[in-house]
Amino acid sequence: MNSDLYFIGIDGGGTKCKVILQDKNGTQLGEGISGPANIMRDAELAKTSILDGVAKAIESANTLLASQSSETPAIPITLSQCVVAAGLAGANISTAKAGFETWAHPFHSLHILSDLHAACVGAHNGKPGAVIIVGTGSAGAVYANGKFTDLGGHGFPIGDFASGAWLGLKAIQHTLLCIDNIRSPDDLSKKVCAELGTSNTDEIVAKCAGFSTHHYANLVPCMLPLLSEGDPQVVRIFNEGGEYLESMAQRLLGDNTYNLALIGGLSNVYVPYFSEKIRARLQACELSPEQGAIKYAKAIYDGQ
Q: What is the pLDDT of residue 210?
């Protein structure tokens, strides 16, 4: 029987799970992608997605090991050999995390942290540093003196300022004001109506009633060309988002010498909105969030 332990890192968000499998020496052997894993919204779906993603990573690892073993057949990796480190959306909510940790999982062990924390550990390779994620949602964290401090991440629509979902919501709100003749119709309102397939307020309200975060964020691609052209309303919206992120960055970094990593589909868009002082502290991510999750779990495992 194969008695070796393997480490699995998971970056689980509201849309998908990215899973990697490494041996104890840090060599990546397999990977997998599965469904959503937001434990605040649907813990049972998250469990299903984790099991599916882990199964795919193990399958790909076993296939690789079998191909490398020409003489003696490779012994397949099993779930009970896997130390799983999962960075999951919703794990920043203590009640959601505590409830999920009662799961009678089939792994050797399971370590839960938020997707934001996994990204922070990975971005700075376990060293002190800050991270801001700005994609469909937004949040920030700093890791120092062995602990995390979070900012934002309260969820859309009450939080996630500057995010794709927030930008889309702002665009729709502006469009409704234009249709009501409170603001003058402009290129942004016309593009939003075209994307939604209607300029009727009742129809827009009905459509939005069934929207989730990614539906709002899907409006961002039609806003970006207008941003490049200097459209006043789009510039105003992005300026507001940029001011929020600048304030978050200043709070995260404080008087320390840590660096800041930006992650997410909108991170490059917002770089020009940061002050020169903040831009001088920006650095590329050293490791991925799933690699960061493994690094976090290994530190716990090695300390036991």
A: 93
Span 243-272, pLDDT tens digits: 999 999 999 999 999 999 999 889 999 999
* Residue 50, number of CB atoms within 10 A of its CB: 27
The string of pLDDT tens digits covering residues 170-205 is: 999 999 999 999 999 999 999 999 999 999 999 999
Provide the pLDDT confidence category of residue 133 given band limits of 50, 70 and 90: very high
Quickly state the pLDDT bin for 214 (edges 50, 70, 90). confident
**Torsions phi, psi for 113 (to 5 deg):** -145, 170
Characterise 88 by phi-psi region: left (phi > 0), alpha (psi -120 to 50), beta (else): beta
The C-alpha angle 282, 285, 289, rounded to 5 degrees, equals 135
Determine the Cα–Cα distance for residues 196 and 139; give it in Å rounded to an integer: 28
Long-range CB contacts (< 8 A, 24+ apart) of 47-50?
47/103, 47/105, 49/12, 49/16, 49/17, 50/10, 50/12, 50/17, 50/19, 50/84, 50/86
Helix or strand holding residue 294 (H, E): helix 289-303
301, HSE (Cβ side, Cα atoms, 13 Å): 19
What pTM was estimated for this model as a whole? 0.85
Q: Is the pLDDT of residue 45 over 70?
A: yes
Ramachandran angles phi, psi of 42, nearest 5° = -155, 90
Please state the length of the chain.
304
Could you give the C-alpha distances from 105 to 34, 59, 112, 282, in angstroms and in order? 17, 18, 12, 39
How far is Cα 164 from Cα 173, in angstroms, rounded to an integer? 14
φ and ψ of 32, to 5 deg: -160, 155
Q: Contact at 8 Å (CB) between 300 and 111? A: yes
Integer Cα distance of 254 and 148 in angstroms: 14
